[in-house]
Amino acid sequence: MLVKGVVFYLESDLPVEARHLLEDFRLAVNNAIRAGLRARVTSRNALNKLAYKDFRREHPRMYSQHLVSAFEVAGSVLKNHRKCFRKGVTGRVPFVKRLMMKAENQAYRLNRKSGVIDLPIRAGCHVELKLVVSQYHRKYLDDMALSLGSLTILPDRVVVAFRKDAPKAFVPESALSLDTNERSLDGVFVEGDGAKAVKAEFPDVALIQQRHHDRRRRLQKKKAFDRRISRKLCRREGAREHRRINYRLHQVANSVLKFAEERKSAIVLEDLKGFKSKRSKELNRRLSVWPRRKLHQIIEYKAQWKGIPVVKVDPRNSSRTCPICGRMQHSRMGAEFKCECGWHLDRHINASINLLQTAISKGMAGGLRFNPGAFQHDVMMILYEPAMAARSELNGTSGIVGVT
Ligand SMILES: [Zn+2]
Fold this sequence. Notes:
With 404 residues, the protein is of the alpha+beta class. The chain contains nine helices and 15 strands. The protein has helices at residues 16-39, 44-58, 64-87, 135-141, 203-222, 227-262, 283-287, 289-306, 347-361; strands at residues 2-9, 101-103, 109-111, 116-122, 125-130, 147-153, 157-164, 174-180, 184-191, 194-201, 265-270, 310-313, 336-338, 344-346, 375-384. The protein starts with a strand and ends in a 20-residue tail after the last strand. The model is unreliable at 392-404 (pLDDT under 50). Zinc ion binds at residues 322, 324-325, 327, 339, 341, 343.
């Protein structure tokens, strides 16, 4: 089952009853967390047994479905806490600070035509939340193949989970193999007997990272006398950076997926899982890994939603192997890969060819083959470049979800 959370803003402020409900919900979550910690349990049922009666006594009129989902939220907080504890990170006693609540799909009703949520507060008291519905939102509301999952309510917005069964991936007729670099995806598109170089550039991601990194450093120095303020400002800086980078990564992913969907391509990516960064070295280097991982995550998840096959292969030696004769180069290369057999090509594109060949040899790319002789050195297809990012439509989803 695939789930996609879609953010909706409300047409007016949250009704006061709903606000009180959020406060009660938070109270229930935090009570359950404390009870769970004392009794060392984390499952929803155990928490239910433990905390239900007491909370019921204090809040006799709260809708019981909401109470149950508060225990679920508490359970997941406790599980995270336990995981951290096991890893040796001893945090404080966890508690939920932000106002929020979660309602399972039986505990609310959404009129998909009018965009009005009917939320029960307690017996005999319901509130209506009118959602701001844009064209982007319509796509999800009108698609009856999507069922409704949980609803998360925040003071200024709600998140509706839409669910569907994962569609079966199509049988690929071509392949798009991509080597992921700090500033671009470089690769090869193979269709029939032809092969062309492709590129999707995102140079501003590294720029944004660098800029925010410098800014954080400066903040730390400037606010060295007050760690609390320094931490707060740095966190804010970090959130801003993530938002800006995410926006760009979604744009890149959307163009790659559009291309793959139109040409029925399998997407081949390197498996970044084993990618270890040397911790003690430059902070810069460590910072630059997450956007690439994030980009893969976005591509994989969106591909799944659309039924586009994605193949991940071990990238070991992919940047120093010759795809023609198999020789391995030991010295570090410049921008171009050169081999004694005469083969030479852009280093990144060469790596993507090796990724593709690994995928083919493992039978992961259907019946596709790759003929290096058919590689057209002089053709470069641009999947994405920053100029294409001219902000098309602000869709009220904090810029995270791009327009497809
Ligand atoms: Zn060679």
